[in-house]
Automatic annotation (TrEMBL):
PANTHER family: STRESS RESPONSE REGULATOR PROTEIN 1 (PTHR44591), TWO-COMPONENT RESPONSE REGULATOR (PTHR44591:SF21)
Keyword Transcription listed: no
Modified residues (4-aspartylphosphate): D69
InterPro entries, sorted: Bact_response_regulator, CheY-like_superfamily, Sig_transdc_resp-reg_receiver
Annotated Pfam families: Response_reg (PF00072)
Protein name: Response regulator
Record organism: Sphingomonas tabacisoli
Keywords recorded for this protein, A-Z: Phosphoprotein
PROSITE patterns associated with the record: RESPONSE_REGULATORY (PS50110)
Domain spans labelled Response regulatory: 18-133
Length: 147
């Protein structure tokens, strides 16, 4: 029942949004992908840095957001991928995912990026995406008071 009510509340929130997800843990990647798709977004899921760089180049100008695991195992980090993406599109929104400390994003991340610690709450993920992409008021946000 809770899952159904969350799907209804989030339906259409991310319509038209194209998100590249780079996550080397398959279950986490699939969970993030499903959450975004259930909210109306389009996704591209990759499991390593090389695939992320290839998708960024192939989809230049078509991606609106990156959701990046900080530690992708071998190769470069999510921080490196974000810096590369910002050279292609300075306005692309970025969310970092990690089990490490949030301070990493401040030390190594791109400006304006968000950091979500693992495990990830679906509601918090979608609220963060909505906030960073200007998708209106996040669900359950208080109504503005009349002036």
């Amino acid at each position: 029942m809770l899952r159904a009510s969350l799907d209804i509340e989030m339906a259409g929130l991310l319509d038209g949004l194209c998100v590249l997800i780079a996550e080397d843990e398959p279950l986490i990647g699939l969970s993030v992908e499903e959450s975004i798709r259930n909210a109306g977004g389009d996704t591209v899921l990759v499991q390593n840095d090389r695939a992320a760089y290839a998708e960024l180049e192939a989809r230049a100008g078509k991606l609106h957001m990156l959701i990046l695991d900080v530690n992708l195992g071998e190769g470069t980090t999510g921080f490196d991928i974000a810096r590369f993406a910002r050279r292609l599109d300075p306005d692309i929104a970025v969310v970092y995912l990690s089990g490490g400390p949030e301070e990493w994003a401040a030390w190594f991340g791109v400006e304006g990026a968000a950091f979500l610690g693992k495990p990830i709450s679906e509601m918090r993920l979608l609220e963060t995406i909505a906030r960073l992409t200007g998708r209106g008021a996040a669900p359950n946000a208080p109504m503005p008071r009349p002036a």
